[in-house]
């Protein structure tokens, strides 16, 4: 059976830009009702305006949410229930990266990365899964990174958060598979977004990198895939990165 995305309700954290925004855009284009979240009201407002472009039949709304705060996450998920009647698709995309050596990293920086990239995903799933069960099932996407399996100097917090997210995602899949809830984690390599450019002094676009739209296409393809099959992990790499 090929599921239909049209009229499904999707909730996307970190949905105001980058990968999250492109996923929201792709789901809107496929007829979904979308709730996006971000920490800054201005970002939420501009993103929802872009999704609800003139002449479109898009149904996109937004709300501020800090996924590190469980009460905010509960309120955020309740908005989807109130406006759209429930949740069918959850995309956990909110994430941050703070990069420094272990001896130089402040404890509060470590906490911020782990709480956002790992605990925040737990909070969102815990708050959304009841709605999915009531609606007969759903699909959860956790946006991870190849950094979850490939450590690099200065990336201890980020590597740990994404490695933990990978294992967490597999455990959640086992918890929920018999409730008709599929779980996939997507591990992109180098993606051309503001997040990636933040680590460089000069931010010129890099045509060899994965485009955020490519990640969005994977989400759409998985949503449309046969329900009898689940691709629990997807690794994405640029086809032709610069030779070392």
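-> sequence recovered:
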């Amino acid at each position: 059976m090929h599921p239909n995305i049209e009229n499904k309700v999707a909730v996307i954290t970190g949905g105001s830009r980058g990968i999250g925004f492109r996923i929201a855009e792709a789901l809107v284009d496929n007829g979904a009702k979308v709730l996006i979240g971000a920490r800054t009201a201005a970002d939420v407002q501009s993103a929802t305006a872009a999704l609800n472009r003139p002449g479109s039949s898009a149904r996109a709304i937004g709300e501020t949410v800090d996924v590190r705060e469980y009460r905010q996450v509960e309120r955020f998920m309740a908005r989807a229930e109130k406006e759209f009647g429930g949740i069918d698709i959850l995309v956990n995309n909110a994430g941050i990266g703070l990069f420094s050596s272990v001896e130089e990293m402040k404890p509060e920086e470590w906490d911020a990365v782990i709480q956002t990239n790992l605990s925040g995903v737990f909070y969102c799933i815990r708050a959304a899964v009841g709605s999915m069960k009531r609606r007969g099932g759903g699909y959860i996407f956790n946006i991870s990174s190849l950094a979850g399996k490939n450590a690099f100097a200065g990336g201890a917090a980020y590597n740990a958060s994404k490695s933990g997210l990978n294992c967490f995602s597999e455990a959640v899949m086992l918890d929920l598979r018999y409730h008709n809830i599929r779980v996939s984690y997507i591990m992109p390599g180098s993606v051309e977004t503001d997040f990636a450019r933040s680590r460089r002094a000069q931010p010129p676009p890099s045509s060899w990198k994965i485009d955020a739209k490519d990640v969005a296409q994977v989400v759409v393809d998985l949503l449309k895939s046969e329900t009898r099959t689940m691709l629990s992990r997807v690794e994405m790499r640029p086809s032709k990165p610069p030779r070392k």
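Helices lie at 18-29, 41-51, 70-84, 107-134, 156-176, 194-197, 212-223.
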